[in-house]
């Protein structure tokens, strides 16, 4: 029986947010904007560009407003205020109502709210219970709708938690339901700690898709044990058509030696193209983005490959 | 529709052969035997231990006879000449009749003959045409049968060739047929240049398995673009139950910076165990084997992971 594969997949580049927030040093706004421009130039259609969170919590992304301003200049054609048709969908993470308000003022049209499926991880990351987080997301959903902004959701530690261990599908479903009540229609299942495996990915996505058939699903893997691409493959088999990656595999944690970042976008795109699946991305140009980043950061990030 | 996964998979460790042959320096016989003993101790049930090829072609494995002698001492219980029940199946690669005769004299019970699906690669690697190689394999098959030795086959560049590009399934089938005529009943499809992708793996294995239903298939991936584990996953879906790996991901070519080795056995075993698939291997002990190798080689080989 032949396997069925999609004709195309949307790649969402999250390196500028999930990657750069984990760099020890602050990357200057101009470099960030240069990277975002290069990614858009390579044909990336969706980019998570920054985070509107407290500058003390994530100082690396304290220039969120300035980054958005830079992007506006990039993608506005001349002075007529019309967005370039080549402009990717730019989204930004927001941690709470205050972040959402900042994002709306900065002109962001798509924001992402993250809640962890793991109570322990949510308390560590968001300093509140899962229930309190979901209450906040409902508020954010109402404000986003009022402001004409799209709110996406992301479930952190959906495939396992470093504090709590295995995560029962019911915990993920609980967060999904809370997000649906907030008006969210697209949810990213994030393997925050790189603990997922291909069998689990297929089973969890299949279960959730059958329970919540109207949700658009996206997947986000960290490559801690080299399983990110394998997890993407069974995610595709389960029907997912949006995959998140980080250029050069950026990310991880500078305080954990050897911690891995996201699936490297260039590996993901290489694999999909070799499988005959279109992404609209120019792989050589994408590799150039990884090179740009390495040059700025002054170290090799990409895995050694021929 | 749930995906079906096997309950167990046989892992064949090929690092002592495919890995060490690519090391610039000769690894002393005692270290090789120590590694083989540690692998067996970790529960690895099948090991490709060495190559019987011309010492000028692969000087790193010029001690094949001595390695086999060391293994005999390891796995013989006392002086009664009875093999330990914990002994793994030890196989060795043989390049031609002379290699086969050396292997038989050294007491090897399972030998492997390799023929490339790519004419260009076979000429570069074996210095003869595919047809000539297959003629030789038939001779080897007859000699192996006469000597009470099992002959396995391996098809190199089955998923793509660095010289010839894409490899049509018919070219792989041609080698498979030649090997069947030589009495081979198990064939490894090898992605020698790390060019395969998950869709292709599923399609090629499915096609070959339907054409040659009596063959036992094994898969062997190099990780040049990080796709080795993803390729293993769709290989399992296509029904393959034998996967080859190299401890610490050893292998590649010391003359190509960044060239990748085989799928790292410890990553493969980690993934399978997380998927609920049994391998009989103790993952911690296997990680110890990788450490032993790194200690001896004096460099870090394993990918950076938490």
From TrEMBL, chains A, B:
Q: Name one GO molecular function term.
A: metal ion binding
Pfam families in the record: HMGL-like
What Gene3D superfamilies does this protein map onto? Aldolase class I (3.20.20.70)
Domain Pyruvate carboxyltransferase: from-to ranges: 9-287
Q: Which GO terms describe its biological process?
A: ketone body biosynthetic process; L-leucine catabolic process
Q: Which domain of life is it from?
A: Bacteria
The family database entries (InterPro entries) matched by this protein are listed as: Aldolase_TIM, HMGL, PYR_CT
Has UniProt tagged this entry with the keyword Ribosomal protein? no
Keywords attached to this entry? Lyase, Metal-binding
Record-linked NCBIfam families: PRK05692.1
**Which family does the UniProt entry place this protein in?**
Belongs to the HMG-CoA lyase family.
Q: What is this protein called?
A: Pyruvate carboxyltransferase domain-containing protein
């Amino acid at each position: 029986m032949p396997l069925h594969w999609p004709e195309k997949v949307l790649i969402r580049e999250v390196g500028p947010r999930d990657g750069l927030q984990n760099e020890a040093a602050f990357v200057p706004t101009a470099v960030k904007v240069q990277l975002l421009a290069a990614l858009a130039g390579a044909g990336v259609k969706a980019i998570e560009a920054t985070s509107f969170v407290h500058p003390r919590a994530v100082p690396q992304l304290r220039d969120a407003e300035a980054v958005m301003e830079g992007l506006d200049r990039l993608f506005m054609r001349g002075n007529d205020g019309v967005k370039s048709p080549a402009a990717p969908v730019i989204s930004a993470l927001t941690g709470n109502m205050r972040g959402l308000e900042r994002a709306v003022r900065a002109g962001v049209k798509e924001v992402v709210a993250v809640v962890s499926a793991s109570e322990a991880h949510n308390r560590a990351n968001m300093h509140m219970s899962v229930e309190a987080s979901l209450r906040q997301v409902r508020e954010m959903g109402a404000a986003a709708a009022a402001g004409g902004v799209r709110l996406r959701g992301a479930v952190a530690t959906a495939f396992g938690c470093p504090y709590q261990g295995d995560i029962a599908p019911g915990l993920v479903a609980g967060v999904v339901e809370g997000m649906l009540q907030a008006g969210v229609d697209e949810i990213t299942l994030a393997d925050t700690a790189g603990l997922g495996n291909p069998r689990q990915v297929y089973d969890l996505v299949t279960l959730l898709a059958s329970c919540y058939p109207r949700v658009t699903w996206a997947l986000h893997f960290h490559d801690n044990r080299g399983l990110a691409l394998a997890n993407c493959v069974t995610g595709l088999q389960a029907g997912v058509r949006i995959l998140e990656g980080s250029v050069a595999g950026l990310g991880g944690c500078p305080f954990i030696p050897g911690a891995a970042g996201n699936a490297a976008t260039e590996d993901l795109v290489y694999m999909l193209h070799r499988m005959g699946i279109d992404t609209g991305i120019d792989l050589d140009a994408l590799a150039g983005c990884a090179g740009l980043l390495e040059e700025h950061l002054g170290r090799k990030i990409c895995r050694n490959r021929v």
